[in-house]
Specification:
Length: 127
């Protein structure tokens, strides 16, 4: 079901349902609590163990040619980014962009704190 959703979103971004997904757009993945286990703040150098299912999902997206960016509040302090980059490398991931900024190319965001809402309604989306 999720793959269908992502294909549908890519199709919308590419403005054609028949096209294969292009490298337009990116998927944001939160770090603490989504990609890495989080049980409190212990400083910028401490990042929890990877969450296996999410790590595999990110690797699969990358294998499919999807751009993935790490979307984390840690990026608000530039000196914290190298800790994230080193952690990603340790998990066998390439040097992904680490950001805390959304742009119009973001397709979706995977985050433990998000609530998706119906467009233009302010109401939570029920899946």
């Amino acid at each position: 079901m999720l793959k269908k959703h992502i294909k549908r979103v890519f199709a919308r971004v590419n403005n054609s349902v028949d096209k294969k997904p292009q490298k337009k757009g990116w998927i944001g993945v939160d770090l603490d609590g989504t990609l890495a286990h989080y049980d409190g703040w212990y400083g910028p150098a401490h990042i929890g163990e990877p969450i296996p299912s999410m790590l595999q999902r990110v690797k699969s997206w990358l294998d499919e040619g999807v751009e993935v960016r790490i979307f984390t509040a840690r990026a608000s302090v530039p000196e914290y980014i190298p800790f994230v980059t080193k952690w990603l490398e340790k998990q066998g991931l390439p040097a992904l962009e680490v950001t805390n900024i959304k742009d119009f190319a973001m397709i979706c965001l995977w985050d433990d704190r998000c609530v998706q809402v119906e467009t233009n309604s302010g109401e939570p989306k029920v899946l």
